[in-house]
Amino acid sequence: MRWLHRWVGVTLALFVVLSAGSGALLLWSDEYTQWRYPSIRNSQGWTEPDATVIQAALAQAPGPVQTLGMPRPGLPVYHLYLKGGDQAYHSIADGSLIDRFGPLGRLPAVLFELHVDLFTGDIGHTLVGVLGLTLTGLLVTGVWIWWPRRRVLRLRQLLPKGSQLSLMNSHAAQGLLISVLVTFLALSGAAIVFHQESEALLGRVLGSAEITRPTVRTLAAEAGPVAWDRLLSAARTHLPNATLRHVSLPSQKDRPVVLRLRNAGELHPNGRSYLVVHPTSGEVLEVIDATQTGLGPSVYNALYPLHAGKTGWVGHRALLLVVALALTYVAIVGLLLFFRGRARRRRFQPGTH
């Protein structure tokens, strides 16, 4: 079984390098997008959603639209998610098309797919969750093994000096210092992967409202065109302290529009508050205020922004960057020690001289 333990460690180390590296780069995806598109970088701040500009953007959309992302401070564009997986950016000034790109047509999208599913779809997404849980177990056992030696930890051991013993001490010392944060990142990542089970568990333990997501419903009759001015007015009226983040357009003419909002007090960058609205009349059919759904959903909804550095504080992102770099170093040193050990064992096996 020793060989199995070793190769599980190697697999986890490779996973950590890919996950931590891609996660570190994703922390700065908005800055990359602003650099990539000067017209976005040069936009004068951002604006509240405008019905006229939204209609102009949809009229110029390069394909059927499923979801419309609203402008925000880090990304002042109308972000259209098209049927088939493509996406498009449209100007906040006049709705004109800035760019259209495929699911992997931009560097942040490539990094995101690597981070969440290793480019292997649902199977890879589940594997990422399992590896996150396994990494948590490895961290806990590593601290347990190190604990009897806790009095010999020295800050000078953080940086290696080249020898095998120095590398091992550096690997252990850096791993120990970041173990608590990495454990949280691994657990929160696994909770995001297994979201239904995690949210249900937190709801049972901490309490939850009966309904936390919009109810799937059918209208009594087919609706006409979306009246954007009425939709925006409904959002301002029913959740006046919330910011509209996404609008999911009806897949059929007898389905309502679903508005996703970030209410005051929500940590999640996109919010978990919802309005279900009749597309034409603007009648509100359902209201879900995430600040009133209980402690369980509130804790679960906070996991993503804490995991991804989306709390709005640059110091949070800087801390996660340091942790990601340290974790990458620890994983690479672990791999180096493993393969050096294999080479040494082969060198001293009988009959190899």
Would you tell me the overall average pLDDT? 88
Helices, by number, come to: 12
Unreliable residue stretches: none
N-to-C SSE series?
Answer: HHHHEEEEHHHHHHEEEEHH
Structural class, by secondary structure, is alpha+beta
Main sheet: which strands, in order across?
A: 4-3-2-1-5-6-7-8
Number of strands: 8
Oligomer: single chain
N→C terminal distance: 28 Å
Helix content: 40-55%
Largest sheet: 8 strands, antiparallel
Work out the strand percent.
5-15%
Broad shape? elongated
Radius of gyration: 24 Å
Give a nutshell description of this structure:
With 353 residues, the protein is α+β, with helices and mostly antiparallel strands.
Outline the fold blueprint.
Layout: H1 2-26, H2 29-36, H3 38-41, H4 51-59, E1 65-69, E2 77-82, E3 87-91, E4 97-101, H5 107-117, H6 121-146, H7 164-177, H8 179-193, H9 195-206, H10 228-238, E5 243-248, E6 257-262, E7 273-277, E8 284-288, H11 295-308, H12 314-347
Antiparallel strand pairs: 1-2, 1-5, 2-3, 3-4, 5-6, 6-7, 7-8
Helix pairs in contact: 1-5, 1-12, 5-6, 6-8, 7-12, 8-9, 8-11, 9-11
Model description:
With 353 residues, this protein is α+β, with helices and mostly antiparallel strands. Among the domains are: 2-28 and 119-204 and 310-347; 209-293, no CATH class. The chain is 52% helix and 12% strand. It is built from twelve helices and eight strands. The protein has helices at 2-26, 29-36, 38-41, 51-59, 107-117, 121-146, 164-177, 179-193, 195-206, 228-238, 295-308, 314-347, and strands at 65-69, 77-82, 87-91, 97-101, 243-248, 257-262, 273-277, 284-288. The chain has an eight-stranded antiparallel beta sheet with strand order 4-3-2-1-5-6-7-8, with helices on one face. A hairpin with a 7-residue loop joins strand 1 and strand 2 (77-82). Helix 5 packs across helix 6, helix 7 (164-177) runs antiparallel to helix 12 (314-347) and helix 8 packs across helix 9.
